[in-house]
């Protein structure tokens, strides 16, 4: 699920254009993408540290995406706020994908928490 939520959000950024978001947002998204791929791969391989990384990745993604997209601009170079300008090419699809990534990130964290409890 998290891979789908993250992937849809990536598609939204591609549709909006690579210059629609500040450079730091795009760089952060690329770093986050690597972490997401690693966390999902570890979970699929049932590695012992996978639950910890799932919790960190899921909660971290939800917090960072909430800051980046759902809060008003505090630091414009570090945010791509959908609430306050410039809102370059933000559509209903942008909102759906941002919310889906936040939601599936929290579900991924919950799955990691459950796996951790089961293993204990």
UniProtKB/TrEMBL annotation:
The chain crosses the membrane at residues 20-41, 53-72, 92-113. The keyword Membrane applies. Keywords: Membrane, Transmembrane, Transmembrane helix. This is Uncharacterized protein. It comes from Mycolicibacterium fortuitum (Mycobacterium fortuitum). The lineage of its organism: Bacteria, Bacillati, Actinomycetota, Actinomycetes, Mycobacteriales.
């Amino acid at each position: 699920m998290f891979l789908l939520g993250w992937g849809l959000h990536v598609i939204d950024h591609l549709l909006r254009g690579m210059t629609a978001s500040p450079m730091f947002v795009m760089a952060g998204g690329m770093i986050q993408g690597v972490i997401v791929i690693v966390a999902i791969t570890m979970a699929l391989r049932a590695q012992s540290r996978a639950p910890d990384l799932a919790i960190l990745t899921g909660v971290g993604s939800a917090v960072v995406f909430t800051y980046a997209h759902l809060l008003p601009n505090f630091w414009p170079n570090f945010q791509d706020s959908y609430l306050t300008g410039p809102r370059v090419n933000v559509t209903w699809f942008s909102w759906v994908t941002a919310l889906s990534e936040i939601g599936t990130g929290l579900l991924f964290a919950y799955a990691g928490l459950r796996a951790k409890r089961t293993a204990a």
